[in-house]
Amino acid sequence: MSANRNFVLKNVLKSQLVALCEMRWTQHHDAVIKFLSELPNVVDSLEHISLWKDASSATKARILFLSVKGPQFVVALHCLADVLSLTLTISQFLQKESANLSQAAIAIDNVLEVLRSRRQNSESQFAVTFQAATSMLQSLGSF
């Protein structure tokens, strides 16, 4: 049945979601960013599968459907994608064979400075992220 569930998801997304790789951080970035952008389609796919007569698939899909369109998950996903968007360039840089330590240290210091600035302006920074999450929740019919 897993092949059937994957088929539904591939038909809706026109591609497959990116799997998480323990060793390659850039793939973590890509997976989270793609998942966030495809969340409405993922939700549609899960809703479709939750209507199947196969009780096991339908139950699992329904549980995931309710989880991924919930406010806590959507806000957390937006926060994670926001932070990962800052660290993506460092991850890409560190995977290059030509990366040197001094350039890496400068890039990391720059990201740390951005994070410090965001921490000092946390309310306004979170307001932007929360607004994006709220818009997505509205489009998912969860809010």
Poorly predicted runs: none
Q: How many E-type strands?
A: 0
Cα separation of the termini: 32 Å
Number of helices: 6
Chain oligomer state: single chain
Radius of gyration: 18 Å
What is the structural class? mainly alpha
Please outline the major beta sheet. none
Strand content is: under 5%
The dominant shape is flat
SSE string, helices as H and strands as E: HHHHHH
* Helix percentage range: over 70%
Mean pLDDT: 85
> How many domains, in number, for the residues?
1
Characteristic terms for this protein:
single chain, 143 residues, mainly alpha
General description of the model:
By secondary structure, the chain is mainly α. The chain has one domain. It is built from 6 helices and no strands. α2 packs antiparallel against α4, α4 (71-94) runs antiparallel to α5 (101-120) and α4 (71-94) crosses α6. The longest helix is centred in the first third of the chain and has 25 residues, at 25-49.
